[in-house]
Amino acid sequence: MGLYADVLLPHCIDFACGAKGLLPERQKVAEGLHGVVLEIGFGSGLNVPCYPRAVTRVLGVDPSGRALRIAAKRIASAPCPIDFVGLEAEAIAVEDASVDTALCTFTLCTIAGAESALREVRRALVPGGTFHFLEHGRAPDPSVARWQDRLNGVQRALFGGCNLNRDIAALVRSAGLSIRSLAAGYHPAFPGPRTHSYLCSGVAVAPAPRA
Questions:
Q1: Helices (H) and strands (E) in the chain, counts
Q2: How many CA atoms lie within 13 A of 157 on its CB side?
Q3: What is the pTM of this model?
Q4: What CA–CA distance (Å, rounded) separates 136 from 157?
Q5: Geometric angle at alpha carbon 17, from 180 and 122, rounded to 5°
Q6: How far, in Å, CA of 17 to CA of 11, rounded?
Q7: Three-class SS of residue 104?
């Protein structure tokens, strides 16, 4: 994909998403994670310091080898084993109902098949297991949303397919996950104007299997 996408962009994303002001949001969204955790979009491991003690193992999914190299020191200092189970979140190599909780931060904007990835998360979670997410997405203000639509092509070209205008809560619900808690708003610590700083975080629950 070239020098920029393969080498430079992962460092840019690590810098932007690693803003100190976002750490409290990462810590908050990680609350309640326990047991075996599936993390899609593991990236450079920015969530590793936020894992609660109740986490016993992390199964990571990420397509970027460079990001994983950036993550090496964080992985080495992790409080639990971290194993990688694939590159693409749309097809995760884990068994049905095999993970206790799942985590995703600043990832659903970029995954081409976000709906398929979320269905995979639902499949992997035990019944009643929780999916914790922190994402940027479509703003509720019409004027901001219009600019998100206008800028989306440039955003995708410059930032590895990242979309500004995805409705994160709607995506989560469309995968059959029930949102238990949700918080959204413009975050001053996230780099960029309001088109880029509308964050959505929450916890969703995997349904019980049908009788």
A1: 8, 7
A2: 4
A3: 0.95
A4: 17
A5: 35
A6: 10
A7: strand
- The answer as to CATH 3.40.50.150 being correct for domain 3-205 is yes
Contact between residue 166 and residue 4 where contact means Cβ atoms under 8 Å apart = no
Structure-token match 């206790």, residue found: 100
Helix (H, G, I), strand (E, B) or coil at 183: strand
Tens digit of pLDDT per residue, the chain (211 long)? 578 888 899 899 999 899 999 999 999 999 999 999 999 999 999 999 999 999 999 999 999 999 999 999 999 999 999 999 999 999 999 999 999 999 999 999 999 999 999 999 999 999 999 999 999 999 999 999 999 999 999 999 999 999 999 999 999 999 999 999 999 999 987 767 999 999 999 999 999 876 5
Q: What is d(CA 179, CA 204) in angstroms, rounded to the nearest whole number?
A: 4
Nearest CA among 92, 36, 26, 35 for reference residue 63 = 92
Query: What is the residue whose two structure tokens read 């070209």?
Result: 157
